[in-house]
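seq:
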Amino acid sequence: MSLQRLFPTLIYERRVPAAARLGPRLLRECRQLPRDDVGGRRWSAKNYPGGYTSYGSAFRMHQLSPTFAALERALDPHVAAFARALEFDLTGRALSMTDCWVNIMPRGTAHGLHLHPLATISGTYYLKTPRGCAGLKLEDPRLERMMAAPPRRSGASRANRRWVEIPAAAGSIVLFESWLRHEVPANPAGERISISFNYGWF
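struct:
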């Protein structure tokens, strides 16, 4: 019998030492932002109950803050490496950061299932991740088409599971193609701080 693996979903995960050196400055700015961002607090109260995100207000932090611009420069090589692994043909254009925003998730805060329209590669840089905090939960993109499929065995490999949760680790990034649906379950631990971003090719 010959088995072939087709149409894989690739996920890039790696520590980013260059970004880790920015950690104290990034953390200070992330903590200050909700104090200054009245519109963001209002948006978060409606769309991000219990937590704060600058997604609805300050969503281009790499253009507003030199610290976040330095983070962009630290992330660029990793996005390029992921694009090579995906075998993208980027002739004539470059992937560039289009959006960058802050997420602060106290205990009990969740982020529902979603994707990132009009983007190519999306990701998260983890800044503060208390022990046991929620990770990034990824959905098998074929799930809605599995009309008559039986459940998978409890010990199924990661490649065959319907959902996979990638632990959040401070100083690391996770990259994925922007069409991949994902969520962050209710955070069972202390305050979790991350910076999310999109890269576009248009």
